[in-house]
Each structure stands twice: as C-alpha cells, then as structure tokens.
Predict the structure.
Amino acid sequence: MQRLTNLASEENIAVEYMKLTVPTLGFYYQDETCHPIIGLDYSLHSHYRLHRCVMAEELGHHFTSAGTKISKRHHSTQDRLTIDKIEYKALRWAANYLVPEDDLLDVIASGLCEGWELAEHFDVTDEFMGFRMRLFGVR
C-alpha cells in the first residue's frame, strides 16, 4: 500500500477517506482549479487487498484518463460505452501495476498457479487476479 501512497504523493494527488454511497468505494477527480484527488471509502481500511485494488484503479484513472469528465447519469448507450472504456483502461493499468507480467511469470514458474494462491501472493482480491489472468490470456 505504501508504494501506491508514494506514487499518489509523487503525482501530487491528494488521497482522502470519506463515507461514500454503496456500491462506490473510490473515485478520481481532477479539474483545472485544484490538484487531483482520490476519494476512498472508510471501509477500505478493514479490507487490505480490496483497498490496494481500489487505490490502484483510481491511480489508473490518473494515468489513463485524467481530464475525462464522467457524469453520474448516463443518457445514451454511447455515454455508457465511453465510461466502460475509461473504467477498463484504469483497471488494466492497475492490474499491470500491481501484478507485473515478469513477476507473474516468475511466480507461476515457482509453482503457484491457482487463482487464490496468486491473489494471496500479490495481495489482491480473487476477482482482481482473475481480471489480471484474463489480460494475460488465461481464461
């Protein structure tokens, strides 16, 4: 988690904890009047792996889609598709950051191959590890 916090600091991103509305656990916001901010739900303090995954995905927004405005209401299919693409890019960045391909290959070569073992090794959720494996080409 420290590596993610350090990266946010290096990028001048404020990280604030607050009560968010379910199912939202985090958000990234940036505009021309202030430094970027990542908002995270207080509940993440009790879920280390999920905390890492959410923080990494929000950092992913900074590196892949900063400046893109996402509204809360979606009125068209095109709006929904654009948002899905933005979310996918941020999640892909997070997966590659938390589970780099070279590290993943080394761990698999060492004998760990079950999804839950890999998730435990990389300190990510099982769902996040499943997404990373799909990026790697494993279904």
About this structure: The radius of gyration is 16 Å.
